[in-house]
Design goal:
Elements (H helix, E strand, L loop, with lengths): L2 H9 L3 H33 L4 H50 L2 H6 L2 H26 L1 H16 L1 H48 L1 H6 L3 H54 L4 H42 L21 E8 L10 E8 L4 E6 L5 H6 L9 E6 L2 E2 L5 H5 L2 E4 L8 E2 H5 L8 H10 L3 H5 L8 E2 L8 H14 L4 E5 L7 H14 L4 E5 L3 H4 L4 E6 L2 E6 L1 H7 L1 H10 L9
Helix pairs in contact: 1-10, 2-3, 2-6, 2-10, 3-5, 5-7, 5-10, 6-7, 6-10, 7-9, 7-10, 9-10, 14-16, 19-20
Amino acid sequence: MSTYRFALGFLKPYKRAVVLAVGLLALVSVADLSIPRLVQTIIDQGIVPKDMQVILNTSLIMIGATALSALLAIANTILSVRVAQSFAADLRKAVYHKVQSFSFRNLDRFQTGQLLVRLTSDINQLQMVILFSLRMLTRAPLMIAGSIALMIATNLQLAMMVLLILPLTLVLIMVFVRVAQPLFLAVQKKLDALNQVLQENLAGVRVVKAFVREDFENRRFNDANTDLMKQSIKVARLLSILIPVMFVLINLTTVALVYFGGIQAIAGTITVGGIVAFTNYLLSTAFPLLFLAMIAGQLSAANASAERIMEVIDSPSRIQDLPDAKVLTEVKGKVVFENVCFSYSEDCGEPVLTDVNLTAEPGQTVAILGSTGSGKSSLVHLIPRFYDATKGRVTIDGIDVREVTQNSLRSHIGISLQEAVLFSGTIRDNIRYGRNDATEEEVIAAAEAAQAHEFIMSFPSGYDMLVGQRGVNLSGGQKQRIAIARALLINPKILILDDSTSSVDVETEAKIQDALRELMKDRTSFVIAQRVSTVLNADKIVVLEKGKIAGEGHHAELMATSPIYREIYESQLGDGGPSNG
């Protein structure tokens, strides 16, 4: 899809307003083009023969034409602004909705800072071009065409001289656009890099201060800021060359016009008013060309931005429902991994999981242990289809998760991810995030099960306390407990707790486990944990090592059969390990 067809697709709902805006602009051009002809009439039929009546009548007509042009231009501006703003709003909505449809694999490709720039700066570039197009860019060719036609009607010889210069000017503009576009694309990429630094720094400002890395972060910002500045200067330097060259061409053409027009006036083949009118028509041609030259940079930037936005919109979600996908209704909770292999790379290299075969019976609690990078989170991410298995399959009650709709699949799965993400709003809003119709009693019950009710009630406004951005006014343990309550509230048949108690103390974790043990009776649960104490009472413990199952069974079985599990246990709870009490 070309960038122009892309833009036209989002303008289609407003085609009537666009046609009306262009029509008004055409009338404005007609009114403006009548002014030089009226000036010619005043000079040739009023000033030269000293006829005041002609001067007065023609002046009144000029005032009327000017007033009409102003009114039409105001109406055009109102329509143009409405269309441009609506276009930008629709485009932002499309990009945002597309991002919402992305799988985790898509989001691995597009960084947060890049998406923010596309949703803001890139769309603003396109919005400005749409506005310019409906207000001025469409007017430019109308004024050029009308002026040339009237120049030919006024004096063919002088018109031919102007027509020789026009192609040279247009070629100059086209060359500029071709050269400028990659420069503007580079500017947007530099802006991506700067925005990424800002996003990371602002989100992690407490870590920066804790490790006294302000100087390092300042250098990172300065480097990104300087790169953006240098690239922007390159673009400005190119603009600084184009505009003066355009002015030189226009001024030389004006000098030639006055000279040759003067010769013809002396010979009596053109009137003085004709020369004045011709000069005005030349300016009516020149100024739109100057505008095109100045807007050429904006057009190049918009074209580059459109390509970047299209890259997001045209990116298919790596996780999609099949055309005949079924709705998953009744779920018992049996989860089976059959010969599952998984890789994050496109070419299936460097597998994260290899030949995983695992069965979780309905109501079972399956604990997953392993060192960092062993594939624990990757394993549970395959259940709700955050990613799809590269080979093999994952089934729920015998149904391949790829054969059911994502919404129905995830409605039966409660998840508390490794990083507890909270949103702006009240604590109640965050707990009810997955189930807005939950009653107050259900919210409190979920919070009590997650051992969150007590600290929530310690706040002056309780459940109505506003959560800061990303939960900045809560501790890590508090955020995790709210995230667990959020997962429990939807009453899922399958519960996934991805290291969700890592930030709470051992005593609180024990209380959470005691509360969850009762709640887990009728649901299949997957618990990823770093502490062995968390998983001792699990129905099944799975030990992962380099993406493979290195041990599976009860605690006693693994102590006897799995050296890796025994090493983990003894390092944490054995005689030689640190005490967890």
